[in-house]
């Protein structure tokens, strides 16, 4: 059974002035705890793990990872144990201060905290063998959940959206955009807004799609993954006030800032119909607020 989320029109004076029609696909409302694209990416992986009768899923992420939170909850829902390899040894004695990790633990996820160096080498055989020695048999789910089955799930995001000229999505590991690209029709274009710096992404995306109707706009990463500015926070709060749609500070907030900035600059022809994918990620807001509070910056409205 395919789950479909609704497209909601965004009404802003700027859009009216520029004659741009903008809709947002509310994938953030798919599930109360497994939001947006993480739900899509887990779907076929969970089916595969269950079919193979594998009792635990092991995966990787940073301290605020939406994927870690989603996997923990999905594991509990599906009676599959979950193991999280978490970046940052220093968290071992203070993970309780982190809302994402608290949530994951309360849903039964077991953690292993590793140094940044070990984390970087997580794909090497040695590490994998070490993990097998330590945890026994498990379903190895890559960082961000991105693999062939995740892309298959993300190919179900677009659904009868043929009347849109442009599809926009935030990009992390590139799995979500690859699935979206695969399900576009001729003449549709996909623009991805990476939430992090790095040139590796384009190659990664090409591994999962053979279409060329897409591009990445790297102008709106705000300095890198997890970095925010006062201007971005203000934008997200204003957007929520005007549209009642919450955005997350890591992915969708940066993307929407970018889209509206491009509209302002006249990047899109009048009459263009744009569909923006709200990939979710709202669980990350309270973690970001803890950081903002420490830095004495304004907080995100909940
Ligand atoms: C993980 C995530 C993304 C990035 O998805 P990828 O498939 O890794 O590119 C985008 N938006 C949100 C809210 C996410 O949690």
Hetero compounds:
pyridoxal-5'-phosphate
- Residues in helices, as a percent range: 25-40%
**Average pLDDT level:** 95
What fraction of residues sit in β-strands? 15-25%
Sheet/helix structural class: alpha/beta
Number of extended strands: 10
Measure the end-to-end span.
32 Å
Query: Which regions have little confidence, pLDDT < 50, spanning 5+ residues?
Result: none
Q: Which overall shape is indicated by the principal axes computed on the Cα atoms?
A: globular
Number of DSSP helices?
12
Order of helices and strands: EHEHEHEHEHHEHEHEHEHHEH
Biggest sheet architecture:
6 strands, mixed
Widest β-sheet, arrangement of strands: 1-2-10-7-8-9
Describe this structure in words.
By secondary structure, the protein is of the alpha/beta class. Helix content is 39%, strand content 16%. The chain contains twelve helices and ten strands. The chain has a six-stranded mixed sheet with strand order 1-2-10-7-8-9. The chain has a four-stranded parallel sheet with strand order 5-4-3-6. Helix 9 links the parallel strand 8 and strand 9. Helix 2 crosses helix 3 and helix 3 runs parallel beside helix 4. It is globular. The site of pyridoxal-5'-phosphate has 21 residues, from helix 2, helix 3, strand 7 and helix 8.
């Amino acid at each position: 059974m395919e789950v479909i989320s609704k497209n909601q029109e965004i009404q802003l004076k700027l859009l009216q002035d520029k004659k741009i029609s903008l809709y947002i696909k509310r994938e953030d409302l798919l599930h109360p705890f497994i939001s947006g694209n993480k739900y899509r990416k887990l779907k076929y992986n969970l089916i595969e793990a269950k079919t193979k009768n594998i009792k635990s899923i092991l995966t990787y992420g940073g301290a605020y990872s939406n994927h870690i939170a989603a996997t923990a909850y999905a594991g509990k829902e599906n009676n599959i144990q979950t193991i999280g390899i978490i970046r940052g040894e220093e968290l071992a004695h203070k993970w309780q201060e982190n809302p994402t990790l608290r949530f994951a633990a309360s849903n039964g996820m077991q953690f292993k905290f590793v140094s940044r160096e070990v984390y970087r080498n997580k794909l090497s055989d040695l590490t994998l063998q070490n993990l097998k020695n330590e945890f026994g048999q498990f379903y190895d789910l890559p960082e961000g959940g991105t693999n062939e089955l995740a892309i298959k799930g993300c190919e179900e995001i677009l659904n009868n959206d043929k009347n849109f000229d442009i599809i926009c999505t935030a990009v992390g590991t590139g799995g979500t955009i690859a699935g979206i690209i695969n399900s576009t029709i001729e003449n549709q274009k996909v623009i991805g807004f990476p939430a992090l710096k790095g040139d590796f992404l384009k190659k990664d995306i090409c591994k999962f799609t053979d279409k060329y109707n897409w591009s990445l706009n790297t102008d709106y990463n705000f300095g890198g993954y997890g970095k925010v500015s006062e201007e971005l926070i203000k934008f997200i709060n204003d957007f929520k006030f005007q549209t009642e749609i919450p955005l997350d500070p890591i992915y969708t907030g940066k993307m929407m800032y970018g889209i509206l900035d491009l509209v302002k600059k006249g990047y899109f022809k009048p009459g263009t119909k744009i569909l923006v994918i709200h990939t979710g990620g709202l669980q990350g807001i309270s973690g970001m607020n803890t950081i903002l509070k420490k830095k004495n910056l304004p907080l995100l409205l909940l």
